[in-house]
Amino acid sequence: MAIDRLNDRVALITGAGSGIGRASALRMASEGAAVMCADLNVEGAQTTAAQIAEHGGRSATMELDVTSEDAVKDALAQTVAVLGGLDVIFNNAGIGGAAYTWDQTIDVNLTGVYYGTYHGAAALVERGGGAIINTASIAGLNGLVSSASTRDPNLPVEPGAGAYVAAKHGVVGITRQFAVTYGPRNVRVNAICPGYIHTPMTAGIREMDGAEEFLAGLHPMGRLGQPEEIAAAAAFLASDDASFVNGVALPVDGGYTAR
Ligand code: NAP
Which of 13, 26, 39 to mutate to test the pocket of ligand 1 (most atoms within 8 A of CB)? Predict the structure, then answer.
């Protein structure tokens, strides 16, 4: 049976050109939403849009760098202009890994989500309400034991160490604050905290010798997640099935944070 929980809704998804964002764009479109696929990687966003079209869905694409406050404001306006509304904002774009500096990680993963939540909540209020979903992480709830320097005390600590965890804890904080501020204004704000997921972001770490087994063993379900499993949670939080869910940081992690 087809689910049509998002009929007549319009969703803006950042990072929609890959991984969790792409799976969520496909899932929300399959539930009836028109989706603005926004990404720094515009070719990736176009591929997502083409996949939505193949399944008979409606979408548009735009290039977006979430570290630009003006660009985020423009993306909100463009979504309304091109797709005729704005009901759901999924602030999902992010970067991860030892290659990034503290500033880069904070800019994309924390400041970018702040812009999308701050300006997004105001834009939804203007339209009578809606739902914001932010992608946090298990790293928004716990420290991580997966980086090379946590596994081997002889290795140097990388310059950006802690930035991902700090940014994702910040995303949970932003989510809670805006849920409190905007709950009375008919805007729900929630976060998803994925465990390790099979996406291009984790490809590098998964390819390291023994890493996939190590990471799988951190999750009580004994495996990594699939992007579609995060997309299912995002579609739920976007929908009226979550009409009384506000301010949660929802782990979708096979039990990783239950220990
Ligand atoms: P992904 O496959 O790498 O997708 C992320 C997308 O975001 C890419 O298309 C990337 O473009 C884009 N992006 C990067 N910087 C951007 C910016 N400044 N503005 C707009 N778009 C930008 O990664 P993913 O695994 O789906 O990650 C999605 C979210 O889930 C991230 O917030 C991540 O931290 C979070 N998360 C992932 C996991 C996991 O295990 N995969 C676990 C917990 C949380 P480029 O390819 O050009 O960089």
Answer: 39
Taking the C-alpha atoms of residue 254 and residue 219, their distance in angstroms, rounded to an integer, is: 6
CA distance 125 to 13: 18
Task: Report d(CA 149, CA 207) in Å as an integer.
Answer: 17
Q: Which domains does the chain have, with CATH numbers?
A: 10-241 (3.40.50.720)
Contact 40 CB / ligand 1 (< 6 Å): yes
Q: Assess whether the C-beta atom of 61 lies below 6 angstroms from ligand 1.
A: no
Q: Whose CA is nearest to atom 34 of ligand 1?
A: 94
Which residue is closest in CA terms to ligand 1's atom 12?
A: 15
Q: What is the pTM of this model?
A: 0.98
Catalytic residues: 164
Would you give per-residue pLDDT tens digits along the chain (259 residues)? 568 999 999 999 999 999 999 999 999 999 999 999 999 999 999 999 999 999 999 999 999 999 999 999 999 999 999 999 999 999 999 999 888 999 999 999 999 999 999 999 999 999 999 999 999 999 999 999 876 677 788 888 877 779 999 999 999 999 999 999 999 999 999 999 999 999 999 999 899 888 999 999 999 999 999 999 999 999 999 999 999 999 999 999 999 999 9
